Amino acid sequence: MSAVYFDATLNEDVRRARLYSGDIFILQPTPSTEALAGLAREMLEKAFAPLDPRLLHKHKTAEEVAAVLARLKPAFIHHPECKKLIPAIMREHGEEPSKIYYDVPRLRSAYPSHFLSSGIAYAFHPHRDTWYSAPMCQLNWWLPTYPIEADNAMGFFPGYFDRPVKNNSEIYNYYEWNTKNRASAAQHVKSDTREQPKPQEALEGESLRYLPRPGGVILFSGTQLHETVPNTTDFARYSIDFRTVHLDDLVARHGAVNIDSRCTETTLRDYLSAADGKLLPEEIVGLYDDGTATEDKLLRFGDRLAVAAK
Ligand SMILES: [Fe+2]
User: Fold this and answer.
1) Cα distance between residue 294 and residue 182, in whole Å
2) Is the pLDDT of residue 178 over 90?
């Protein structure tokens, strides 16, 4: 069973333990999460001025929007302000930055479903991040940048946290995916043919929607089954998410239990220290290597962007 905590005052070790057992935390906005959401709004509004970024589908073609997002999203990911705000968010929530490694924050967009829901604005079907080579101790931080509604939010299936789902995650090898698919995301405007891990059975019940206000955070384990709700509202949804791992948990292999993930290799080479921005030491990543990566496939996120820019 999963519980949902609101503004919990648990210490960070207990909070992580609860997250690994399937509980979800809704966190009120803090100065740094508000600043992160504000940065995304500012960049979106500048890039699409004078239009309201939530109403682009009324004025632009899907191709025009995708072309702007292809520049805007990497600019957000690598914005120097993000490198300051994520460590600050960790401190605001009691985590010691020297123990935390994070994957760069992504800016996501979910347009009204008739408009643009593939490629660079991919609408994610139900999945666990651990079907995509995430470590079992990964935590996801998800925050909306504008007010959201049930029909343009993130959906969760907490009942499946400890219930296996038939899936084809064995098709996914993180390094193979990077080399073949990532650089071409902006080309998949109308349809997306990239093969991805998906449930191979019908899921029971509808997903639950948690609706924090802008800058508020849904904090959850990367093993939670979640989806992008098909956006049936008349407003685009923009959100930010990033992932964290705790060094002690990584080394001790603490985390959620793997009940149904069979993907290979690990995303850990993308993680940066919240204290000094350095990559995770290779000897720690090595604990999670499974021997399926070869040197020519070893690409880190910055390298992939360099490839994409060519
Ligand atoms: Fe996800």
Assistant:
1) 18
2) no
Instruction: Give the mean pLDDT of 106-123.
Output: 74
Rounded to the nearest angstrom, the distance between the alpha carbon of 20 and the centre of ligand 1 is: 16
Q: Are 134 and 174 in contact (CB under 8 A)?
A: no
Kindly report, residue by residue over 222-264, the tens digit of the pLDDT.
Answer: 999 999 988 889 999 999 999 999 999 999 999 999 999 999 9
- Neighbouring residues of 61: CB distance < 8 A, sequence distance ≥ 6: none
Q: What is the DSSP string of 46-108?
A: HHHTTS-GGGGGGTS-HHHHHHHHHHHHHHHHT-HHHHHHHHHHHHHTT--GGGEEEEEEEEE
Backbone region of residue 69 per phi and psi (left: phi > 0; alpha: psi in -120 to 50; beta: other values): alpha
The Cα 37–Cα 29 span in angstroms is 10
Of 300 and 131, the structure prediction assigns the larger pLDDT to 131
Ligand 1 center–CA 11 separation, angstroms: 25
CA nearest 66: which of 195, 187, 241, 237? 187
Q: CB 176: neighbour CB atoms within 10 A?
A: 16
Of 41, 107, 103, nearest to 69 (Cα)?
A: 107
Query: In angstroms, what is the span from residue 225 Cα to ligand 1's centroid?
Result: 8
| Ligand 1: centre distance to CA 123 (Å) | 10
> Is-cis flag, bond preceding 281, omega within 30?
no
Tokens 């290597």: give the residue. 289
For residue 27, list its beta bridge partners: 217
State the distance from the centre of ligand 1 to the C-alpha of 289, rounded, in angstroms. Answer: 21
Q: Which helix (H) or strand (E) holds 252?
A: helix 247-252
**What's the residue count for the chain?**
310
Closest CA to 29 of 178, 110, 141, 136: 141
226-228, strands of its sheet edge to edge: 208-209, 154-156, 226-228
